[in-house]
Every structure is written in C-alpha cells, then in structure tokens.
Design goal:
Layout: E1 4-8, H1 16-25, E2 31-34, H2 40-45, E3 49-52, H3 69-75, E4 79-82, H4 85-90, H5 95-107, E5 111-116, H6 120-124, H7 128-139, E6 148-151, H8 165-177, E7 184-188, H9 196-199, E8 207-210, H10 217-227
Parallel strand pairs: 1-2, 1-8, 2-3, 3-4, 4-5, 5-6, 6-7, 7-8
Helix pairs in contact: 5-7
The chain binds 2-phosphoglycolic acid.
Length: about 230
C-alpha cells in the first residue's frame, strides 16, 4: 500500500467562501479529508474521499445535535476519526464511548481510524506503551474487524514538537505487535512541509494525519509530493 495522507480540518474553516477557495486551489490529490461536518458534502461533491471527525454512539433518534453514523455513510463518507485527543479533552470522550462509536461505525460500513497517544507527562515518565496499550485494549474491546490506528502524541498536536523518528518507529512497531493482522498505523502531530522529509524516512509508517499544515494548500501539496515519491 502506498502511504496515505489524512487531513483533519478540525473546525478551522468557517465560511462557504473559505471552503470553496480551498477546494478550488487543491489539485486532484490522493488525500482523505476530514472537514467540518457542515462542509462534508461539499468535499465529497468535489470528488474527494472523506471521513467524519466524530459520530454519535446512538442510532438515529431523539439525540439533539448528534450526528449518526448512518447519515454520514449516506452522505458518502468512507471513514470516521475516533478518539482524537481534542475530543477526549474537550468533550470528555472516554475509551468506553470510543468503543461504542467504533462498533457503530463498523455496523454502518464506515472505516474507523482510532487515534491514540500519550500526554507530555506520560511521555516524560516513559509510560507511552502502557498508555497506548490500554487505549487500544479498551477502545477495541469485543471488536474483531480491522481498524486503522493513528499514533498522535497529545504533546505533539499543534505544538510544532514531534518525537524523534526512532521513537516513532519504536512505538509504531509496538502498536503493530499488538494486532494479529497487518494493521495500518499512521503518525500525526505537527507534521509540516518543513519536517515531512525527515518524518517520511520512518520505515514502518503507513501514512500521516495532518492538522494545521493541511489548511494551507501549498504546504499540503509539498507534503503530498514528498510522501508519494
Ligand atoms: P496538527 O494536528 O498537525 O495541527 O498537530 C494533528 C491532529 O490533530 O490530527
């Protein structure tokens, strides 16, 4: 498999004009976009493969403000990001609710991408493997279908800091050793046009999850160019 690039556009874009300009500036690209759900249909209609940044644990029903996996699938999305640290932190997402959402995604034929990673304190205390093993075990409890993992150290997201290539390679190997299938594992956290040459040397990485740098189409193109070489 060629390496994949996922772009998590978070809640960065906030007007139709901004999104239209972004889409018009993008060349056809082998990237999977996770736009704000409001703009998901626009990206899909533009021909891009897309995913959603979150889904409800519930089936369609009386759940004000929530978005069902069924509606996301019906809109044409293929993936769903689950367990992102911003949702764990800001919306009190737990490994248990992530587990329910992964099941819901699979029931609706959406491919779940499970985000895992340690915070800075855990990193300095060398607890990364303990933390991610626990996150994986709880989030994937009673799930036998294949999922995708994105390793995103919390302290690397949006900070401009990244672990060393050796550290990432070691953690990715560890994650892969926890699965009985050839699990795809991405790296995310401050990936940019300036560090992608270096990060792309990591031998066992299956792709990158990009946040802020994906918002700038010229940076994104540079990243695509390096990764698809
Ligand atoms: P970042 O975000 O690239 O802006 O650090 C990555 C992510 O949150 O997925």
């Amino acid at each position: 498999m060629n390496k994949l690039i996922l772009v998590n556009l978070k809640m960065y874009q906030s007007t139709k004009e901004e999104v239209d300009n972004y889409l018009n500036n993008l060349k056809e690209s082998p990237v999977i976009f996770f736009p704000s759900v409001i703009y998901l249909e626009k990206f899909i209609n533009h021909g891009f493969v897309c995913g959603c940044q979150n889904i409800s644990i519930n089936d369609p029903g009386a759940y004000t403000s929530e978005i069902s996996a069924k509606s996301i699938k019906d809109m044409g999305a293929k993936y769903v990001l689950l367990g992102h640290s911003e949702i764990r932190q800001n919306l009190s997402e737990t490994d248990e609710s992530i587990n329910l959402k992964i099941k819901k995604a699979l029931d609706n034929n959406l491919k779940p991408i499970l985000c895992i990673g340690e915070n800075y304190e855990e990193y300095t205390q060398m607890m990364t493997k303990i933390i991610i093993k626990r996150q994986i075990e709880k989030a994937l409890k009673d799930i036998t279908e294949e999922v995708i993992i994105s390793y995103e150290p919390v302290w690397a997201i949006g900070t401009g800091k990244t672990p060393t290539n050796n550290e990432i390679e070691d953690i990715l190997n560890y994650i892969k050793s926890l699965f009985n299938y050839d699990v795809k594992v991405f790296y995310g956290g401050s990936v940019s046009k300036d560090n992608i040459n270096e990060l792309n040397k990591i031998k066992n990485v299956d792709g990158f999850l990009i946040g802020k740098a994906g918002l700038d189409t010229s940076s994104l193109e540079k990243i695509i160019e390096v990764v698809s070489k």
